[in-house]
Every structure is written in C-alpha cells, then in structure tokens.
Amino acid sequence: MKLAWLTDIHLNFLKEGARLKFYQEIVKTNSDAILLTGDIAEAPSVSALLREMCSHVKKPIYFVLGNHDFYKGQVDDVKKEMLQLTNDEALLFWMPAAGCQTLEKDIVLVGQDGWADGRLGDYYHSICSMYDSRMIADLFQQSILGKKQLLEKMQQLADHDAAQLKDNLTQAIAQQAKKIIVLTHIPPFPEASMHKGKMCDDSYLPFFTAKATGDILLPIAKENPTIEFLVLCGHTHSAAVYQPCTNLIVKAGAAEYYKPKVQEIITF
Ligand SMILES: [Fe+2]
Known about the structure:
Blueprint: E1 2-6, H1 16-28, E2 33-37, H2 46-57, E3 61-64, H3 75-88, E4 92-94, H4 95-98, E5 101-104, E6 107-111, H5 132-135, H6 137-145, H7 147-174, E7 179-183, E8 194-195, E9 198-199, H8 205-208, H9 211-223, E10 228-233, E11 240-245, E12 248-252, E13 264-267
Parallel strand pairs: 1-2, 2-3, 3-4, 6-7, 7-10, 10-12
Antiparallel strand pairs: 1-13, 5-6, 8-9, 11-12
Helix pairs in contact: 6-7, 7-9
The chain binds fe (ii) ion.
C-alpha cells in the first residue's frame, strides 16, 4: 500500500491553475490514499477545496484540520461542516468523525486535529503573538478577557482532542493493530517542534506544541511495545523526526506557503 502524506498545503493561497497542477502531482505518485495533517485552507474555503481536491485526486483523503482551517470561523461550525462532508463524500474522511480506519490487515489509522496548549515553554512571558487569537472567533473572544482566559480555551480544545485520541488508540489496540498511524496537526513533543534547525524556544513552544497529545501518546506506546506507532504532524513548517521510545516515531513536515508538496510516500 502506498500513501502520500501532505501537510500545511494552504490551498486558499493558490490560484486555481496552481491548485490543479498540485493535484496532478499527487495523482502522479500513484498512491492508494492521501494523508493530510492540517492547514488545508481557512474556514470559509476548506470544504469546497477538499471537495475540489477529491474530485481530481479520486482517492481516499484521510485528514485532520489545523488551526488555519478554523480561521474566519467558529470551531463548532467548522467541525459540523467536516462531519457533513465526511457523511456526504465517500472519499473524504475527517479523522475525528471517521474514527479508526483499517488500511490493511493490522494497520490502523487514527487522527485528531489537536491544538497548541501553552503547557510547554513560557506562555505568560511569550513575545509570540499568534494570529489564532485574532482569526478564530472562540479564541478571539477569550483573548479579549485576558491571557489566562485564552490559555484556558486553548487547553480545553487541546484536552478534548487528546481525550478523543486516547479513545481512538484504545480501540485500535483492541483491534489487534500491529502498526498505528496517527494524524494530528500540532507536534506533540518539543523535540518535534523545530524552527530554522533548532527546537522552538520558550516563546514559541506554547503555541507550537500540544503537550496534551504527547502525554497520551508516550505512555500508550510504552505500554504496547509490540505495536509500532507513527505520528505525522505539521504546523511548524519545519521538518523534524523524533523518536521518544523504540516503537514511537513522530514526523513533522516541512512546508512553504504557495508551494504545497507531497511530503513523503509511505509504503508498507
Ligand atoms: Fe498550523
């Protein structure tokens, strides 16, 4: 089986011609399915662009959303739209709605969007100002109330997705999976969160890691040493590979605005 992994493709920045060219690049890989780890577009365009991509690629697209996919929208509204999309389009799978997907015997795919949770680095002294708190209605409302209220909202979103991931992983393990592929947007460990060849500093880590996700993944991987866990994520736009224990590998994808690419072909 051949899977094409894409991340942070930001299709809304591209003109139609450039998007069609990119879809043809994906088709040329001759993959059986597409794995997409978020930042596909923005709330007003993400559904339409996923449908467009699907109509050209004509293969299953398993995806999670990134923070940009909620820009100019409300979190719950976007989630409802993705649920609808997954129900309407046979080849589109928003992983939080799709649940465990068996790709091949013993190989199970799961995924949750994930949110940066401000738990790593130094949130209160950070000089980093993220667009998220201006562009996502739920975060904007909390940021007006204060830094503490914004942090609480970030953590509420992150903890919800981490709890869902725990349920997904428990189910995948119960299905006797030998290999579990996890899609998520935010790197779950600081070592997977790179910027210009170095780990993100204390100002950026609060917004570039989801500790909640890492805290679910690592103990589950250690408790299940015979299962291989591969976590694919994005968000930083910087490539990273981190192996916190023998059976858990985390890969973050490199990305450039206006230049979407196929990150990696995964075969098994
Ligand atoms: Fe992102």
